[in-house]
Design goal:
D-Maltodextrin-Binding Protein, domain 2, 5-stranded mixed sheet, binds the ligand NCc1[nH]cc(CCC(=O)O)c1CC(=O)O, 3 domains, about 35% helix, Double Stranded RNA Binding Domain, alpha/beta
Amino acid sequence: MANKTIRIATRQSPLALWQAEHVAARLQQAFPGLKTELVKMVTRGDKILDAPLAKVGGKGLFVKELEQGMLDGVADIAVHSMKDVPVEFPEGLHLAVILDREDPTDAFVSNRYSSLAELPSDARIGTSSLRRQCQIKEKFPQAEILSLRGNVNTRLAKLDAGEYDAIILASAGLKRLGMGARITASLSPEESLPAMGQGAIGIECRINDAEIHEYLKVLHDETTTIRVRAERAMNERLNGGCQVPIAGFAEIHGDRLFMRGLVGSPDGSVLYRAKADSSLDQAEQLGQAIADDLLAQGADKVLRELYQ
Ligand SMILES: NCc1[nH]cc(CCC(=O)O)c1CC(=O)O
């Protein structure tokens, strides 16, 4: 293992670079002498900035190019936000490890209002996530939802320029970039149920690369893995990516796994919610049960309309 260099495929947004550098630092801490190298790439999701994600379509918008890099042998691992990782992988690649979770909540950020509850009914709210949009619209049917794309700094600059009364974005991204102080209020799961995998970092690599797996093992976080396994199982059954109004969030209390799921119409007029709990070794079954509950309520109608 002497002189080994691990080449890490990453996007170039400040958050992606932070996450890749975090993984590099953790690996070097565990394996003194190990070298790492960032292989910086541009994904389709980075290029298409003028359209809402829901319109761009296609799964794996932020990961495909990184995956091709590993298949081509120009990178050994890819560091992803779990939220952006589709449930299926290209042949030869898989998810090797999930790291401990940062704050999974959605953040309410405003220069004018101190909480979601204080917003005027016709507030202008920035978000490009249908999941956030449908939950906001349920409570504020008159609210104007405005597109908000770009990296964290771009999004905050748009808010500061006065384009919105408030914006909603992932707390994890703000905290990782040292901008946690910009979070006006963390939204509770009742106010905005997070996306599957939100706040968790995952590492993908070639299935047959035994040496790399030896290194990655030290990064594994069991609690986060169980939670994200349940959340991904729900999305898999609903056939949902990050461009559909689906939320799934699991928490561990004692020796039980508690999960909530949600499917909504983008305009917030229909929202289906489900919750259940299980033992920790039944994570996948729990996620599937939540999905089945949502489907039995009629969630498939909403999803079918979106996929058309
Ligand atoms: N879809 C983009 C994306 N992917 C991961 C994060 C934030 C970090 C995380 O959830 O780990 C974001 C930005 C956002 O949702 O505001």
